[in-house]
Amino acid sequence: MAALDEAGARSIIFDVDFSSTSNPVEDAALARSLSEASAEIVLPTFGQSESFESDRQIDALPIASLRRHASLASVSVIPDSDGVVRNMPLGTMTAGVPRPSLSAQAAGVAGKAGNQFPVDFAIDPVSIPRYSFIDVASGRFDPSTITDKDILIGATAIEMGDRYATPRHGVLPGVIVQAIAAETLLGGIPIFGGWLVPLLVGALGAALVFARKTYSRVVATSGLGAAALFGADIAAYSLAGADFRIVAGLILVLASGAARSGLLLYREMYRGKRIDQESGLPNRLALREADGSQENAQTIVAMLANFDAIKSVIGADAIGSLMGSLAARMGGRDIVYRIDDRCLAWISDEAHETRIETLTELRRELRRPLEISGKRVDPAIVFGIAAAGATAEASLAASTALANDKVWHMHEAAEQDLLEQQVSLMGELANAIENHELEVHYQPKLDLMTDCIASVEALVRWHHPTRGYLSPDSFIPLAEKNDHIADMTLFVLQRTLRDLAQWHGAGIEVKAAVNISARLLISPAFFDAVGAALQVSDTSASDLIFEVTESATMADPAAALRALEGYRRMGIMISLDDYGTGQSTLTYLKTLPLGELKIDRSFVENAHEDSSDALLVHSTVNLAHALGLLVVAEGIETVECLDFLREVGCDLAQGYFVSRPLPASELLALCLSSSTASDTLARTAA
Q1: 442-461+483-677 adopts what CATH topology?
Q2: Largest CB tally within 10 Å, which of 148, 384, 402, 603?
């Protein structure tokens, strides 16, 4: 020590245990040497457990004769739970006194006992100069390297046991760990940022990774996220001395990249097995896994009847493009699958009558010429129908339709299932009518001059106790076919008359329309039943509208005309529904005792965008007004369409943009709030 003091050391700091006495003569000599030294002397103090199983700590201090001539500093090292030293204390409490740590004493840094700082293990231990005890004792060192330096004295031998695991350098002697900690503090007290902030940043990076839809973007995002964490950690330490634990954040970003990549790969493989490579359509396997549990669900197969002829014209390579074009023509209502070279399929949950109408219209659409690979082809399509999931049976039914030169054919088992369903449903419908289990909802018609609800259309609804909600298309055609239509229509009429009386009592003056089928239109018994219902009702016949279709009036024109004139004499207004879809002529319109004309939605919904539809709607409005008829446009779903109808002078508008069909109580509330146009339009369909 005398040699170090003579060389001009600023301080001499011991990491050597002086807590027990040695030879009294030698202890006295060391005390005398400490008292005579010009350099600041720092001796160690530390805490240790009383025994292996004890939680009691014993504080170790240098013997009294030594500590009178020196400062005391803590040499306690507290590894993390995994045994690795990452942080060092700025100070500790020993013998009830707060004392600086050895590294803080060496660096001249003040701090609060109990506070820690992260050690910069980027410092290479080899970069810290060192001398052996023998060299110093024998004077074999350059004194200029000692002048104004802080000297740490400690043991480095393995036998001494004072060794600790560190993150970068493996196991180091305690005195070297203390030296690295002192070097860290010489650059300022680092801020321990912890792991939470990097973990949150990693979570944000993981969210960005999982938002990526392609493998390349996932890899790029996870790589950039990891690089950003590294860069931010370096910048935080360089600029603010903040030391963060970024491992958890890095693992989260990289793990999310690996997981997302695996998920995308799995999805690609999963999708690849379920996609027809030629057409890009889902294949038979995808159809097999599709949900066919809906009410009335059946499998429809569309077979290209002239497949071989078309293939010889356009070539085998273009068949996929042909099938894709055919699927596109079917529209987006159902998912269309390619189940073999010449067949497309889908699952339909329409009622049988609606399904047949759809297939007939679809065949006409699909027969329109297509241009494939620069060549014009004319597809011929037939359809097969079978139970949901019975794809092979549906294909066989399509082959039967082709062999019999029919548009469609239903597989026998499906026919039997359909018959059983219909018989069961009709029995339940009869009970529902008798027990008043049906409901009537009302879809408003907006007066475009006053922006108030002027009339409503009564629509029957059936929420079956076991089958759930049933679409009207699934039971109204059956009711008409099975002689239940009269009872059901009378139920709707009586409920409508009752609700009209309640609305009028609440000060709401609206009219209500009831749909009358072709069979009922020419039925004398139904005519008498309508008269009887009006006699016992508090509602005037002038508040009632009967909506009839063109097809209903054309089935038996003479009988239909007599019935309509009879209803007109009662005071009921007659409205011609779905105008434009039949074969009406000017003479026919002039002959019928009409008060209202409803333009079919197929002409209205795109009239604000399609010039042809716009011309048809405009001319129909002018024609109807010339004949003294009110005009109702149905199928309004946008404000642009409504504005167009105002411009062309249409009287009434009906559609989801005005309102969906509502129960009587909700309709009353809507009418009460529709005193202005803004109130009405605020209740658009969700």
Answers
A1: TIM Barrel (3.20.20)
A2: 384
pLDDT of residue 679: 46
218 by Cβ neighbours in 10 Å (0-12 / 13-18 / 19+) ranks as: buried
* Rounded distance between C-alpha atoms, residue 349 and residue 219, angstroms: 43
Topology annotation, domain 290-410: Alpha-Beta Plaits (3.30.70)
Buried b (16+ CB within 10 A) or exposed e, 260-272: bbeebeeeeeeee
pLDDT value of residue 685: 38
Question: What is the domain partition of the chain in residue ranges?
Answer: 2-189, 193-273, 290-410, 442-461+483-677
Helical pair 611-626 and 639-648, crossing angle rounded to 10 deg: 40
Helices (H), 7-86: 24-36, 64-67
What pLDDT band is residue 558 in, cutting at 50, 70 and 90? confident
Beta-strand pair 191-194/170-173: unpaired
Question: What span, in angstroms and rounded, lies between the C-alpha atoms of 479 and 490?
Answer: 13
Average pLDDT, the chain: 84
Q: At what angle do helices 557-570 and 524-535 cross, to 10 degrees?
A: 10
Residue from 604, 572, 393 nearest 497 by CA? 572
Mean pLDDT of 369-397: 87
Asked whether the predicted pLDDT for residue 88 surpasses 60, the reply is yes
- The residues pairing with 456 across neighbouring beta strands, listed in sequence order, are 444, 512
Residue 378: how many CB atoms within 10 A of its CB?
A: 11
Maximum alpha-carbon separation in the chain: 141
Please state, in angstroms and rounded to a whole number, the distance separating the CA atoms of residues 184 and 169: 15
Q: What is the CB neighbour count within 10 angstroms for residue 32?
A: 12
Average of pLDDT values for 338-355? 84
Checking if the pLDDT of 185 tops 50, the result is yes
Strand pairing category for 71-74 and 40-49:
parallel
Q: Are 429 and 479 in contact (CB under 8 A)?
A: yes
